[in-house]
Amino acid sequence: MAIKRHSKVDSSFNMASMTDIVFLLLIFFLVTSTLVNPNALKLLLPKSTNQVSAKPTVSISIKHYLPSNTFSYHINGKNTPVPLGEIEGLIQQELMNQEDPTVSLHVDKTVPMEQVVNMMNIAKRNQYRIILATSPE
Fold first, then answer.
1. What gap in Å lies between CA 12 and CA 15, rounded to an integer?
2. Counting C-beta atoms within 10 Å of the first and last residue's C-beta, which end of the chain has fewer, N or C?
3. How many folded domains does the chain comprise?
4. Could you list the residue range(s) of the whole structural domain that residue 87 is in?
5. How far apart are CA 27 and CA 33, in angstroms?
């Protein structure tokens, strides 16, 4: 009596696990691609979660008075305002012997960009590093 064995190897492949892996990879790459390239024109700058490790040696504050549309400039948080024409000379005196001169710029939300650029131009002329201070989120 010869007993026949019917033990054939099943050559079919189950694609269910492969489709799960491909689906998870697709979700992963979609999520990471949106994190790498955020929207380029999100201009709500006054709030930020980033911290800068550089310690500013001088801080400049620009306050905007809306009713009269005037600005006051303050150095190192002093209450007495400084005229725009004297700011560069005062900053040069403060940063004269500094190894890595850094200026921190504290600007009110309503200050026009022109005023901020004026302060950045002063820092660029004197080769100072400048930090735009923001409030934490």
1. 10
2. N
3. 1
4. 50-136
5. 10
Q: What mean pLDDT value characterizes the chain?
A: 76
For residue 37, the SS3 value is coil
Answer whether residue 1 is part of any domain.
Answer: no
Task: List, as one string, the DSSP characters of 77-99.
Answer: T-SS-B-HHHHHHHHHHHTTT-S
Q: Is this model's pTM higher than 0.70 or not?
A: no
Quote the CA–CA distance of 56 and 62 in Å, as a whole number: 16
The pLDDT, as a whole number, for residue 47 is 52
* Rounded Cα gap, residues 58 and 128, in angstroms: 10
Q: How far apart, in whole angstroms, are the C-alpha atoms of residue 130 and residue 128?
A: 6
Both tokens of 39, joined, read 């929207």
- State whether the Cα torsion 38-44-47-52 is positive or negative: positive
Tokens at residue 92, please?
């040069």
Which pair of structure tokens corresponds to residue 93? 């005196």
Q: What is the pLDDT of residues 78-91, one digit of tens each?
A: 778 888 888 888 88
